[in-house]
Amino acid sequence: MNPIIRFRQGVPATATWRTACCAVLSVATLAWPSVSLSQPVGLPNMGAASAAELSPRLERQLGDAIMMQGRRDPTYIHDLDLTQYLNEMGQKLVRHASGQAPDISLFGVRDPSINAFAMPGGYIGIHSGLFTSVESESELAGVTAHEIGHVAQRHIARGLTQQAQNSSIMMASMAAALLAALAGSVDLAQGVAVFGQAAAIDRQLGFSRDAEREADRAGFDMLRKAGYDPAGMAQMFQRLMNSSRLNEGMGGGAYASTHPLSIQRMSDIQNRMSQMTPSSHVSSDDFWYLRAKLRVLQALDAQSRRLVMQQLQQEGQSLSGTRQHAAWFGLAVEALRRKQADEAEGWLSKLAEARQDTSYAAGLRIELAQLRGQNEQAVALARAAVQRWPQRQALQLALAEALYATQHFQELERLVAAQDPGLLEQEPRFRQLQALAQDAQGNLSASRRTMAEFYIMTGAYPAAVSQLHQARAVTDDFYVQSQIDARIRQVQELMDSEKRLREQFG
């Protein structure tokens, strides 16, 4: 009997998604038709949406196809604390979008460059370098709101299907970048980004700035109505302009390559702010804790890690309040990363003495117990943490991991069954653990069906079909076999749909 096909989470089948996504978006941002620069007061006139545009359904399929590859890339940050925080911020903003609120999904990318990008289908990536460079939660929310503005105004779909003079060049470049994302050719993805920009930048940059102003204004309104300080957007853009010398095209940078900054855009935001009563927003503890964690996670080489440790140690000594506690937390993260259990315990003890018993510290205590081989202690800590912070998704996953390590398989299955379907889709690891637990208990058909769902979530359709065939072979239950047959047909339809997607844009 064939065993369950194993999948090591975090190890990609390809390492191309972020490059290819940036290629798609770099091309898309520049692919705008020409319009008059004479604008009425309000949003820039980018024209009405046409029937020839990419449909929302097809746009979502494009985004889903890229994200299925993206979640298997090492630069994708598999951290539910971060993902939950970003999406809660995004939902807070999108509730105040004009018109119909778009469907969005935010995620983190381990990359020290200051960047953020919107993908087809409402997916928004936030670079760790952007998060760690901001000085307030309102600045981060300002960039996030801007990206949501692109989604809400359907800039990507409108750019991908524009009928301007360079349409054939842009559509070919977009298609090549998309296929690179799906097929796994890094060189191809990098090439189309260069050639696509070179072919269109002179003719389309002016309208690209109109698109940016439209996203600015839509984002500014969301930012203000959501309770963040609108000055955060202006402060962040000013920081980007100063650091990259982007005043009117001087210099460049990751964010500016697809989001051209200008004095006109800054003036527009400042003029809108001048007509408002000044407001303030206190950055949350979550913001400071996750900012410290990302500073550690994005430091991959020895020199960067030493520098981050020195900075956090200095902040832990010189700062006070939440920022000091966040520095201690970051040092505990780094100690666990180096598997220095005693050092990590020392920093966690300082947090406990300061009465900073947060869900983030609780997660590290669970990890510390596992590092020391105290698996039952880890289960006890995780159960207590979930009971205290039931809405924290990362703690739910930590409990699942601890239950699997201690062979509490039935409790693990109950835990997974109780999770929100959206969380299970977002974090396939739950399904993988459930399948392994079922396999360990000898429930072979169920384990293979569950593992098939894991593979479907990660876009590994052939592996999913293989698991379903194995599941069918180990059961004599006609009803179960019929269900499996139906699911095999559904997966094959997904495979056919992806094939048609490639053909349509190939």
From TrEMBL:
Its cofactor is Zn(2+). Keywords: Hydrolase, Metal-binding, Metalloprotease, Protease, Zinc. One of its GO terms (biological process) is proteolysis involved in protein catabolic process. One of its GO terms (molecular function) is metalloendopeptidase activity. The keyword Aminoacyl-tRNA synthetase does not apply. One of its GO terms (cellular component) is membrane. Residues 83-272 form the Peptidase M48 domain. Coiled coil: none annotated. Pfam families: Peptidase_M48. It comes from the Bacteria. The keyword Metal-binding applies. Transmembrane segments: none annotated. This is Peptidase. It comes from Corticimicrobacter populi. The lineage of its organism: Bacteria, Pseudomonadati, Pseudomonadota, Betaproteobacteria, Burkholderiales.
